[in-house]
Amino acid sequence: MKTTKLVFIKITVTLLLIKFINCGCPVSDNPSQMLQCLTINPQAFIDLISKGDYKSFCHMANGYMTCMTTYVRDCLGGKAATGILEELQDLNLKCCISGRNQECVIKNPSLLSKCFSFDNTVMMADGSVKSIRESKVGDMVKATDENGLLINSEIIEIFHKDPNSSTLFQVFYDFKDNKISLTGSHLIYVLSKGYLKARDVQIGDKFRIYSQKEKAFKEFEVKKIDFQIKEGFIAPLTYHGTILVNGVDASCYADINNQNLADLAMLPVKFWYKLSKMLNMKIESDTSEF
Questions:
Q1: CATH H-level superfamily of 116-279
Q2: For the Hint domain, which residue ranges apply (predicted)?
Q3: Distance (Å, whole) CA 241 – CA 243
């Protein structure tokens, strides 16, 4: 449910970015029709999923995709639009209309996950380590900033979490028995290349892994890539968009091939999280006076 809502938040932000990106072509011959695409209420999608009304959900998703591709076309500004439209298209393809009754079926919902497997760990702000499956909103964990420096960052959202579904993960091993497992569309930082989707990582590529003993980042050279079906997945989002998983510097994002654009697309989520915290603090402060 949260995935659908976030998809449309990212699409909205992308359209707002259009005026700042030189496309070299008109976005639409009829801007008013393009804007009608944005009138679809993301909450409606969430309500349909929560009710299990996949038929209506599929029809609505298909209509949104048709609207976007018809009036927005392919000049939204390169990578920003490509990643977001691919994600919506992927969602639409996994949800097919079939049969005389137009019954909607989800081919394999677990394939929509873009996450880390439950057997990974995260490093907390105090240096302790715990299972990533125990991660929750409000946790302070280790992450990296835009300069690659180690920082503390708060988990502000859990994109996906399912302890019972099985998902195909890519597992990367180095020469020192370190490993990390994540889905193919998830981003991970690669030295000299920047953030890449896991499926694009090759033998010999190097990650960054934090050594608690030496209090510094070391190289994690990929010596083996394995594909394993594992049960349980989770995708935490930190305020800085990065997180150390099994000590490895990884992104919190998937699908979009640009970490900065993905982070920009999450600004509304960050804004509402900070705002809600401020409001809660004010309410607690006001009530404590009585």
A1: Hedgehog/Intein (Hint) domain (2.170.16.10)
A2: 113-211
A3: 7
Please say whether the dihedral angle defined by the alpha carbons of residues 52, 56, 61 and 62, taken in this order, is positive or negative. Answer: positive
Residue in the block written with tokens 């105090």: 126
Whole-angstrom distance, CA of residue 212 vs CA of residue 227: 28
Structure tokens, 199:
């499926």
Best CA proximity match to 186, nearest among 252, 247, 121, 136:
252
- Distance, in Å, from the CA atom of 216 to the CA atom of 123, rounded to the nearest integer, reads 14
Q: How many beta carbons lie within 10 A of that of residue 64, not counting itself?
A: 21
Token pair listed for 102: 């137009």
Note if the pTM is more than 0.70: no
Helix (H, G, I), strand (E, B) or coil at 178: coil
Alpha carbon separation from 134 to 60, 131, 236 (Å, rounded): 34, 6, 10
**Scanning the structure block, which residue is given the tokens 């929560």?**
50
pLDDT single digits (tens) 29-61? 455 555 555 555 555 655 665 565 656 666 666
Helical segments of the chain, H only: 2-17, 31-36, 42-51, 54-71, 79-94, 259-265, 267-287
